[in-house]
Amino acid sequence: MLIFRRLYSIYGSIIFILSFLLLLPFFIITIEIPGLKKYGRMLNGIWARIFFTGLFIRVKVENKELLKSHKQYVIIANHFSYLDIPVIGLMSRDAVFIGKSSLGKVPLFGYMFRKLHIAVDRSSFRSRGETLKRTKQIIDEGGSVIIFPEGGIRTAHPPEMATFKDGAFNLAFEKQIPVIPVTLSFNHLILPDDNKFLLNYKPVKVVIHPPVMPEGIAKEAIPRMKKACFDTIQKQLWRDNKTKSNSKTAGSTSPKKLIQ
User: Fold this and answer.
1) Share in percent of the chain as helix, strand, coil (round to 5)
2) Residue 83 located in a structural domain
3) Number of folded domains that form the chain
4) Nearest to 205 by CA among 96, 63, 41
5) Residue 105 lies in domain
6) 163 located within any domain
7) CATH code for the domain of 224
C-alpha cells in the first residue's frame, strides 16, 4: 500500500508540474497584458481540472448554483491540506486568493500567484495592512475573494477546525457583501498535512452552503457571522467524516481530540 501511495504521489507531482508548464505561457499573457488578469484567475480552474482529471479523482461539488446568487462574495473554507487551493480553484471563476507569503516564493508558481492573487506575511504588520488595502480595492473593483479564516493549516486534529479569525467577516461587513461558507470534506484524507506528501486515492467532496449576510451593527453582526459559518462548516465535516467533537463550544481556541 505504501509503495502504491509513493508511486501515485510521484505521478501526481508530475501531472501537477506538467499541467502548470502547459498553461504557463497563457498565465504569462494574462499577467503581462493589462486588463487580462481575471482570465488568468480563470485559468486556475482549468489547471485544477486538468490536475484532478490526470489523477483520476472525481470531484463532487454540491450546491454550486449558490455561487451565482450574488455578484460578489467572500468565500471561506476549512483548511487542512495543500489540496485545498486547487479544489477551491475549481469553483471560483474570478476570485482572488489570500494566501501565505511562502506561496509567492515557489519558482514559477510563485510568479503566477503573486501577480494574480495576494500573498500575505502574517507575521508582518505592514504586509497585513497592505493586504487589507489590496483586498478592499479588489472588492471595490467588483471582484470576490477567497480566505481560509483559520489563518493557515493550524488544527492538530482534523476534521476539527481551529478557531476562525475575524478578518474575513470584518471585510464582508465593511463592504456589505455576503460570506459563502464552503466545506472541503476529505482533502485531509487525500493529502494529509504530515510532511510526507503522500496522496491517497479518494473522491473530493465540496459542499457550498447558503450565504451568510452582513446584517445589523458591526459588534453583533461580525461574531454572529463568524459563529454561523464555523458551525455550518464544522457540522458538515463531522457529518461527512462520521465524527463528533467533545468541544462544548464551537470554535474553541484549542482543538481537542475527537471521539470516534
Assistant:
1) 50, 15, 35
2) yes
3) 1
4) 63
5) 58-241
6) yes
7) 3.40.1130.10
Question: Considering only CA atoms, which of 52, 69, 97 is closest in space to residue 206?
Answer: 52
Question: pTM of this prediction?
Answer: 0.90
Q: How far apart, in whole angstroms, are the C-alpha atoms of residue 244 and residue 171?
A: 31
* Dihedral angle sign, alpha carbons of residues 68, 66, 79, 124: positive
DSSP assignment of 135-172? HHHHHHTT-EEEE-TTSSS--SSTTSPPPPPSHHHHHH
Three-state SS string across 175-216, please? HCCCEEEEEECCHHHHCCCCCCCCCCCCCEEEEECCCECCCC
Any bridge partners for residue 208, and if so which?
182
Kindly report, residue by residue over 76-119, the tens digit of the pLDDT: 999 999 999 999 988 877 899 999 888 888 889 999 999 999 99
CA 244 to CA 187: how far, in whole Å?
Answer: 18
Q: Which of 137, 221, 214 is nearest to 180 (CA)?
A: 214
On the 0-12 / 13-18 / 19+ scale of CB atoms within 10 A, 242 is exposed
Quote the pLDDT of residue 89. 86
What's the half-sphere exposure (Cβ side, CA atoms, 13 Å) at 201? 13
Cell numbers describing residue 212? 451568510
* Short-list 104, 106, 109, CA closest to 40: 109
Q: Stretch 184-211: mean pLDDT, rounded? A: 96
- Contact between 178 and 107 (Cβ < 8 Å): no
- The answer as to whether 206 is a domain residue is yes
Residue type, 98: I
Do residues 161 and 230 lie in contact, with contact meaning Cβ atoms separated by under 8 Å?
Answer: yes
d(CA 91, CA 234): 20
Antiparallel, parallel or unpaired: β 204-208 and 179-184: antiparallel
Q: Please report whether residue 26 resides in a domain.
A: no
